[in-house]
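Note to self: keep these together.
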Amino acid sequence: MELLKSWSNTFIEAGCDEVGRGCLCGPVVAAAVILGDDFAPNLINDSKKLKFKQREELDQYIRENAIDFAIAELPPAFIDEHNILNASIHAMHLALDQLTTRPELILVDGNRFKPYPFIPHQCIVKGDSKVLSIAAASILAKNYRDKLMIELHEAFPEYGWNKNMGYATKHHQEALMKYGATIHHRKSFKLVY
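Structure:
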């Protein structure tokens, strides 16, 4: 199914998505993307449905062809202090803050968002598999975060972050039981099951 190029067909839309909400460690990362009418959908889809190589190619295409895009991250300490939902929404706000083109409508993947100053928003459940700009945001956010987790893996190879990206896999759980939490783990999350 081809994704919608526009939700409103009227306004300048910024699609927003975040990645890393369910991880035990690392930042939460959000992206905001504004696409033009001439943006070709290519193979863009929800980032979770794409292979690594596809996401890499699409990441470059989005960066080169979007009207505007921005990426923001918030560290585990912020997540621990404000909770993951608030951190996710705040990261999306920070990404929107960085856009040089002002959107007239914000499209958010999911069902929760806090109003952004002076711009209306629309929450869309499974928006990353329905709307092109949200799918593009999901790709940028996921690629950015995955690369970051692969870099963090170099300092903490025991946890397998280059493969699990910080999610609670069996390997990650076993490493937590053996070595304990790192500075990159979210202390407010249940780390050992």
